[in-house]
Amino acid sequence: MIRRNLLKLTVAAAALSMAAGTAFAQDAAGAAEPVVIGVSIPSATHGFMGGLNWHAQQTIDRLGETYPNVSFVLATAGDAAKQVSDIEDMLATRDIDGLVVLPFESEPLTDPVKQVKAAGKFVTVVDRGLAEEGIEDLYVAGDNTAFGRVAGEYFRDNLKAGGKIVVLRGIPTTLDNERVEAFQAALEGSDKEILDMQHGNWNRDDAFNVMQDYLAKYPEIDAVWAADDDMAVGVLEAIAQAGREDEMVVVGGAGMKDIVKRIMDKDPQLPVNVTYPPALISSAIEMTALHFVSDAPMAGRYIIGSQLITPENAERYYFPDSPF
Amino acid sequence: MTRRIDFHLLGPLVALVGLFILGALLNPAFLAPANLSNVLARSAFIGLIAVGMTFVITQGGLDLSVGSMAAFLAGAMIMVMNWLAPITGENWSTILIGMAAALLGGVLAGWVNGALVTKARIEAFIVTLGTMGIFRSLVTWLADGGTLSLDSGLRGLYRPVYFSGIGWITWPIIIFAVVAILGEWLMRHTRFGRHVEAIGSNDRVARYSAVDVERVRLQTYVLLGALVGLATILYVPRLGSASGSTGVLWELEAIAAVIIGGTALKGGRGRVWGTVVGVLILSLIDNILNLADLVSPYLNGAIQGIIIVLAVVLQREKRPADA
Question: B145 and A49 in contact by Cβ < 8 A?
Fold first, then answer.
C-alpha cells in the first residue's frame, strides 16, 4: 500500500483541489478496505497548541464522515516520553496504516518514528523535523524563517527612521532561533535598532513581566515584536498599565482570533500580524488521508508560507469558533 | 542573642539588600517607584501562596498542587463570572460572587489535599502530585485546550484591583503586606502557630502533649488553599484570562521562597518574614536580569539557581556549630 511517488509540493491550493477531486471519484467507486491513521500531537498546554488540537479534532471528525472506511486514533502527549509510548502502542495494538506525528522533540522521537516507517507504514511529520533525514514520506510545516522575515520586513518598511524595537523571544529552541535570526537579517542594514531581546517563553504572564521591565528600562520604544499572540496579550496589558499605548505598535504572530479581530477593527496599536497557522495539522491529516483514498501523489515536503495579516485581509484569517 | 544567631537569621536579608544595591548600581530605573511597584505587585501571587506554604512545610508537609490549583481556580472563577454576567449584570456584585467562588474553591481544594493526607494517611508528596495533575488537566479541559477570558465589561470593572491602589502602592502589595503580617503573628503569637512548629519538630511528642495533630495539619492545608484562592483573586484582573499554562511552576517558586527564608524543609521551624524576603529575592533576580544586560538570557536560570543556593548557604554556614 506504500506509494513512493516523490513530488515536491509547493503550490498548495492546486495540489489539494486536484487531489480532492480524485478522492471523491474513488470514494464513489465503492468502499475501499478499512484504513487506520494514527495522529500523535503534543497536548494543549499553550494557546497555539490548543488551536492545533482543536483543528486536529475538527479535521478528524470531518474526514471520518467523508471517508467511512478511514478511522483515526488521536493521542495527545504532555512530554516526549509519553509520545514515544503512544506511538509504540499505536503500532502494536491499533495496527495503524499511517501515522501523522508532530514530534514533541526531534531527537527522542526520531527512532520510534523510524520503527513505524520500517514496519511499512506511511509517515507524515508535522512542523518539527526529525533528527535524521529521509524517514518521513510527507513533511508538512510552517515556515519559521518566513515568520521572522515577514515581521522584520514590516518593521523595516513601516517604522520611522531610527525606530527602536524590543523583542520577546519564545522558549529557547532551534525554532525560536530560526525566527529571530530571520528577523534580525531582515532588519540588517536598515536604520531601525533592536534595543533588547529577552525570553517571554510564549507565555502571557512571563511576557507581561518582561514588557514591564522593558518599559522601565527604555524611555523610548517604537515597536514591539511579541512574536506570538499569547505574548502579545501580556505585552498589551503592560503597555496599558504604563499608559504608553500611543507610543508603540505591537506585532504578534500566529493569528489568535482576538488579535485578528482587533486588526480587522483597525486598532492602531496592532497594525498587522504574521500567520503561523495551527491549522497546518489539518493539511497534514487531510493529505495523509488522501494518500490512502486517492491516487494523488502525497509525498514530499509541503511548507506553508507565513502571510502578513493586514486590516484588508484579516477576515480570511478569523476563526471565531477556534479556541485560539 | 549571640552574633552567630544574628547572622543565621539575617542571611536572606543580607542577600536581599545585596540585590537591591546591585540593581541600583546597574540601572537607575531600578529604584523608580514604578519599577518597585511592578516587582512587588508581581511578587504578590507567589508571596501569598508562599506564606501559606510556610505553615504546611513547618508542620512537616508539602503541597505541590498550588500552581495548578491557582490555574484551576482562575479558570473556574472566570467561568462563574461569565455565566453570572447576563443574570446579575456587569457590576461589582458579580465580581464579589466570583471572588467568593475562588476563595471557597481554594478552601475546598485545600481541604481535599489535607483530608487525603491526614484522614486517608497518604504521603503529602504523592497526594499533591496527584492533585497537581488533576487541577492542571481540569483547567485545560474547562478551557477546551485554549484560553478562558473574562467578559470585557467585567474586566474593565475588575482591572483596578490589580493595577490601582494608594498611589504606587497597589492593592496586591497592600494585601501581600497585610497577609504577611498576619501570617507572622499567627506563627509567632498564637497556639495554632506553636502547634504547627511542635508537630513539625516531632509529631509524636506533640500528640502526647494533647495536640490534635491531624486537625492542625488539615488546617494548614485549608489555610494554604484559601491563600491560593486569594492569590487568584488578584491574578485574574491582571490579564483577565486563564489557560493550561497559568501558574506553571509556581509551586516550586513558593517552596524555594520558603526555604530561602530560613524555614526548614523537614519542618519544625517556620519563619514567615523570611518567606517574604525569599519571595522578594526571587522576583528581584528576574527584574534585575531584565533591566541589565549582564548575561545571555540563556543563562538566567543559572543565575537564579546560584543566588538561591547562595542565600541558603549564607544562613546555613554555622549549622555545624549549632549542632
Answer: yes
Domains of chain B (ranges, CATH numbers): 3-322 (1.10.3470)
In a domain, A52, yes or no: yes
DSSP B62: -
Angle at A201 between CA A198 and CA A205, to 5 degrees: 95
Residues of B in contact with A209 (CB under 8 A): 42, 286, 290
Reported as a pLDDT band with limits 50, 70 and 90, residue B8 is: low
Specify the CATH number for the domain of residue A122: 3.40.50.2300
Q: Which residues of B114-130 are buried (b: 16+ CB within 10 A; e: fewer)?
A: bebbbeeeeebeebbee
Contacts of A53 in chain B (CB under 8 A): 145
Question: Measured on CA atoms in the order A191, A197, A203, A205, is the torsion positive or negative?
Answer: negative
Band (pLDDT 50/70/90 cuts) for residue B43 is very high
CB B220 within 8 A of CB B161: no
Nearest to A297 by CA among A5, A8, A22: A5
pLDDT digits (tens, 9 = 90+) for B256-278: 999 988 888 888 889 999 999 99
Residue A237 has phi, psi (to 5 degrees) of -65, -40
**Cβ <8 Å between A46 and B243:** yes
pLDDT digits 0-9 by tens, A295-307: 888 888 888 888 8
The beta-carbon neighbor of B146 closest among A212, A216, A323 is: A323
Contact assignment for B144 to A50 by CB distance below 8 Å:
yes
Question: Which residues of chain A make contact with B71, given a CB cutoff of 8 A?
Answer: none
* ipTM for the assembly: 0.77
Specify if A312 maps to a domain. no
CB contact under 8 A, B297 and A199: yes
Which pLDDT value is given to residue B294?
A: 75
- The DSSP result for B263-286, as a single string, is --TTSS---HHHHHHHHHHHHHHH
Domain interval for residue A64:
12-143+277-306
Q: How far apart are CA A242 and CA B163, in angstroms?
A: 10
**Span A137-151, average pLDDT:** 90
User: What does the alpha-carbon distance between residue A201 and residue A231 come to, in Å, rounded to a whole number?
Assistant: 8
For chain B, give the number of residues. Answer: 323
Which of A211, A213, A215, A262 to mutate: most B Cβ within 10 Å? A213
State chain B's mean pLDDT as an integer. Answer: 89
Residue B107's Cβ-side half-sphere holds a number of Cα atoms within 13 Å equal to 5
